[in-house]
Amino acid sequence: MLTKLGQKFTDAFTKYMPSAYVFALILTLLTAIFAIIFTDSKPIKILEGWYNGFWDLLSFGMQIVLIIITAYCIAQSSPVKKGIDKLAKRIKTPTQVYFIIIALGALLSLVSFGMVVITAILGRELALRIKGIHYPFLVACVYFSFGGWVCGLSSSIALLLNTENNFLIESGVLNDTISTSYSLGSTLNILMIILFVVISPIIIWALIPKSFDGKELKDLKADATDEEHSVKAEALSYKLPFRAVSDALNNAGWLQVSVALLGLTYIVFHFATKGFELNFSIMIFIFLIVGMLLHITPMRYSIAMKRASSNISGILFQYPFYAGIMGIMLASGLGEKISDILASIATLESYAFISYLTGGIINFAIPSAGGEFAVIGPSIITMVQELGINLSPTEIKAMTARASMSVAYGESLSNLLQPFFLLIVFPVMGKGIKIQARDVVGYLFIPFVVLFIIQALMVSYVPL
Q1: Domain-embedded: residue 253
Q2: Over the stretch 412-434, which tens digit does the pLDDT of each residue have?
Q3: How far is Cα of residue 309 from the mean position of the Cα atoms in its chain?
Q4: Over the stretch 188-216, which tens digit does the pLDDT of each residue have?
Q5: Does residue 258 sit within a domain?
Q6: Which of 95, 155, 180, 392 is deepest in the core (most CB within 10 A)?
Q7: How far is CA 15 from CA 313, 438, 444, in A?
Q8: Which residues contact 30 (CB under 8 A, 6 or more apart)?
Q9: How far apart are CA 450 and CA 214, in angstroms?
Q10: How many domains, in total, are found in the chain?
Q11: Per the domain annotation, does 265 fall within a domain?
Q12: 273 in a structural domain
């Protein structure tokens, strides 16, 4: 029954949901119209906010590009391919693939949401080796698996609250930092982790399509890719038929390994002096250095980079549009106005759910947890302080952390229907095939509804 219902939703999304780029264009117009109607901002101010916002995610967009191509480079190395081959021999059925992708992806996401690239690489490689895998459903599994990142080490809102002199403290909204023991270490967050790692695979199991006819990876390939022969073989093909210094340098393993060892030295120094501090920059650097060590020669690594970079156009031109939408929300005050309206109806019993709902709604216009919290965070925290005026400082801290994490949970869940972060998955899983957001998101609608109900109850009723 659930499988049939899931297929109906999938068919509906396939028919009506546009591409991620068209979604961004429609959202741009709607946000601008709402800003004109519901705020006092003049059209030219909204237009300026849109233009200025265009450039606010350039750094973030470049980080996403680099984490994708450096991770993909690692996957193309001979040692990793051999490891995946051994793993594939132990996995016999598509159902096992779906379970492993969901559970492993959820665990990796607790380290960083950028780890979804590793999950995507594993998913694609398993789809190449195991028959009977419904590939669009597998893509949905990969995308679904990274939702638990807000519970883990890279949870941007939790880390922000614990950062000295953050913008909330500097603006006077908070008096002091809030330890991650109130957020990431809370009973609520631990139960959320269990939800993503244990319950999510069961939800997906109930929705596995009965038929995979025409939906395997080999059926969807639009053209042959240059990965049919190995990176090593292509590197050898560039050699001249006679001995040459240029070839000797291009294939000099000692040269690349020497530089990589310098990088490895810094990585050790980083963790020795800063503890287990993970951010995009150090993750990209780790992937870069590991890729250099695995490919050994400059020529092989260059070829792997070329292959990895061939499918990132969606990120390069679509991220600025979403940043522009965020610019409209900031310049017009629309995001703050929405959060103020929702906060005005909150009570001590409902404030966490209101925060959760706010995070989910605003995420459609600002699909970035940090960017979203910059817009609505002050309103959410002020709401908590007003509601808890007669409570102790410790209780207010706990409530603030709960409301803030509720925003994060809502933001993360609504990504299932917001195709923005599919742009991270598609460069890997969509390489050389015809696939769009509409082919994937339909499989996520029922998981969205189920998790919405469970999470809404959890943020409302799990004790502080």
Answers
A1: no
A2: 999 999 888 888 898 889 888 87
A3: 19
A4: 999 999 999 999 999 999 999 988 888 89
A5: no
A6: 155
A7: 24, 8, 15
A8: none
A9: 29
A10: 1
A11: no
A12: no
